[in-house]
Amino acid sequence: MDAKEGPLAGIKVIELATVVAGPGSGRYLADFGAEVIKVEAPGGDPTRRMGWTGPGETDAYFWKLVNRNKQVVSLDLKSEQGKADLWALLADADVLIENMRPGKLEALGFSPEALHAKNPRLVILRVSGFGQDGPYAQHPGFATIAEALSGFAGLLGEADGPPLLPPIALTDEVTALGGAFSTLVAVRHAERTGEGQVVDVNLLQSMFQIMGPLVSAFAHMGYLQPRLGSGIPYTVPRGTYRCADGIWVAVSSSSDSIARRVLDLVGLTGDERFSSFQARSANREALEEWISAWIAERPYETVLAEFRRVDAAIAKVLDMRDIFADPHFKAREMITEVDGVVMQNMLANLSKTPGKLRHAGKPFGADNESVLGPVREKDAVG
């Protein structure tokens, strides 16, 4: 299946974004058949040089993952030719993705007003650190800063330790998903009405969305969640625990029925201290100490077998070595290979309109001739 056959076939996306969040949105659209043309500045997207690079390769694995299934062209938007080429690409586009600092697109001469004057149906996905307006709009915006400002980093870590940051590009990935979803909402509106619009997605707002009921809990109760390590306030026991043989497991009891089965298993049947969500939360330390001790006295295989016997939720804490050997990952084909690069497969499996990986992220300027050649010829004739 090529892009013309995918479920998003016919949607043309011009991507000016760099690094992960904006290009991540483009990746999800491209995975399901949208024609995504990535426009790079003469120096190339920094992601080409970010992280690990294979032997003899110049482009990083991060680049090849985030920019898979896209066509790539290079344009100098400070030049008149570059601007003319971009206008030509946008003439029949459905979506523009950009993640410049607010105001930069306008400074280049591509304001939303100017874009919609020439292409009224255009959906403009603007990905930024903090949004297109507000006091922080012009501040440098990276995932780390959004994780701090959103309240997320303040929750990570042990009670007596410092706040922590996630060791992966979590905020960028969450924002990419939000950007792709919001873009398709706007595309649907454009298909029905002929009206394009600006989609304002940012790192801070995306992370703030996943804070769950903590916003309401503070507004109505003054509640401030402390750092709880691997715990959460409303589900106990929940966390990571070390078995007698040194293997770590994760346990969750996010329903009363599972919590009761765990309590029965570890010898706490009928203990009123742990009879409800609220009671277990109020007696968190005692329950966590009991569960930790019970698991610490037994080897992993015994712990796993006992939890499985009572149908309670448990899993070994896996690293990448474990994942590559795991039968479920294999059965679900969650890891695949494209152009010799091993990477994650599709985000979701659709029974009627599945996506497909066609190629990894391409070399710099790989599609200049095939994409820009016809555009320039058309302009010359016009």
Q: Per DSSP, what share of the residues sits in E-state strands of 2 or more residues?
A: 5-15%
Helix-strand sequence: EHEHEHEHHEHHHEHHEEHHHHEHHEEH
Q: How many E strands?
A: 11
Alpha-beta content class: alpha/beta
Residue-averaged pLDDT, rounded?
96
Q: Note the main sheet.
A: 6 strands, parallel
Strand order of the largest sheet: 3-2-1-4-5-6
The span between the termini is 33 Å
Low-pLDDT stretches are: none
- As a percent range, the share of helical residues equals 40-55%
Radius of gyration: 25 Å
Which overall shape is indicated by the principal axes computed on the Cα atoms? elongated
Continuous helix count = 17
3D architecture notes:
With 382 residues, the protein is of the alpha/beta class. The protein has 17 helices and 11 strands. It has a 6-stranded parallel beta sheet with strand order 3-2-1-4-5-6, with helices on both faces. Helix 6 crosses helix 9 and helix 8 (170-193) packs across helix 9 (203-209). The longest helix has 24 residues, at 170-193.
Summarize the structure.
By secondary structure, the chain is of the alpha/beta class. It has helices at 21-31, 61-66, 80-90, 104-107, 112-118, 143-149, 152-155, 170-193, 203-209, 214-221, 256-265, 277-282, 284-296, 300-309, 320-325, 327-331, 368-381, and strands spanning 12-15, 35-40, 71-74, 95-98, 123-128, 197-202, 238-242, 248-252, 313-316, 335-338, 341-344.
